[in-house]
Amino acid sequence: MAEPGAVLGLIAALAALVWGAATLDAHLGSPPQSRQTPERAAGPWREVARLLVQQRRLTLLPDVLLTRIGLLTLLLAPVLAAAVLPLGGAPVADLDVGVVWFNAMEVCVWPALWLIGWGANSVYPLIGAYRYVAQGLAYELPHMFALITVALGAGSLRMTGIVQAQHGLWYAVWMPVAFLVYLVSALAMAFWGPMGQPLGRDLAGGVPAELSGADRLLFLAGRYTVLVVAAAAAVPLFLGGGAGPLLPAWAWTLVKTVAVLVLLVVARHRLPAVRMDRFMDFSWMVLIPLTLAQLLVVGIVVLP
User: Fold this and answer.
1) Which of 47, 162, 176, 212 sits in a 20 to 30 Å window from 95, CA-based?
2) Using CA atoms, how far apart are residues 259 and 185, in angstroms rounded to an integer?
3) What is the pTM of this model?
4) Half-sphere exposure for 299 (CA within 13 Å, toward CB)
5) Shortest CA distance to 225 belongs to which of 62, 1, 13, 44?
6) HEC string of 97-150?
7) Chain-centre distance of CA 95, in angstroms?
8) What is the rounded CA–CA span in Å between residue 189 and residue 181?
9) Cα–Cα distance between 192 and 63 in angstroms, integer?
């Protein structure tokens, strides 16, 4: 059974990274001339305060229960996924099937967004939910093959076992295709940046278009948490976990997580949006064959 201190430490670390990602995102999204104003200096605090006092708006005949279940799932699923990640030491839950658990929890984001889009009883959120389902069908198979490649190379589904298997060479170097595919799937998983069409401007904001007040704040917190956990998972999977000179393991884990997180946040402001139909074609015609080829190469090397 997980120790309460470890659980609280995990939640505190995720909260700090979520706040940092939100601050960087707000900074990059604001015009240069406005970055020194008191409003921008306050960072996400101002938006949090605004949403907490904002009155909730309701559409005609919404399913409030389904919406709230979706919002809670969106926030809880990435936290549960992070439970198997070794953040510089032993994870909260060192499961024998840690990779499977991580993948299962991140897939829970699918029904979460669907429930939010459906529960609003409004056209734009529902279309945004459909877009995310299509996006999930496009990214999930390459994502799974990338995870299988890592597990095959390590000979283990345990996250700590994967970290130990990278003492000689990081998997980001040995399995570059799987690493790049994972980064793309991380953007899609968090419906972030070029993969943010479920929240597209052409849909008036998409899935959260009808959310306001504390509901919208919970949605934003869940989205940033998914992004943070996706970035943190890249460290034990591809970047050797806490391995590194001079600094302790937890410090190296933090440095690597922040580096991947900054890369993903910057991608939102530097890369154009991708249409779902084109991404699906690219995924099935390019990403899946590449990940299968990477899996074949790793299998030939490690299997007797």
Assistant:
1) 176
2) 17
3) 0.91
4) 10
5) 13
6) CHHHHHHHHHHCHHHHHHHHHHHCCCHHHHHHHHHHHHHHHHHHHHHHHHHHHH
7) 20
8) 12
9) 26
Instruction: List per-residue pLDDT tens for the chain, 304 residues long.
Output: 456 677 888 888 899 999 999 988 888 876 554 444 444 545 677 888 888 888 777 788 888 899 999 999 999 999 999 999 987 677 888 888 999 999 999 999 989 999 999 998 889 999 999 889 888 888 889 999 999 999 999 988 999 999 999 887 899 998 999 999 999 999 999 989 888 888 888 888 889 988 888 889 999 999 999 999 999 999 999 998 888 888 888 899 999 999 999 999 999 888 888 888 888 889 989 999 999 999 999 989 887 7
**Using an 8 Å Cβ cutoff, are 74 and 223 in contact?**
yes
Q: Where are the beta strands (DSSP E) in 249-302?
A: none
Cα-based torsion angle of the residue sequence 257, 259, 262, 267 in order, rounded to the nearest 10 degrees:
-110
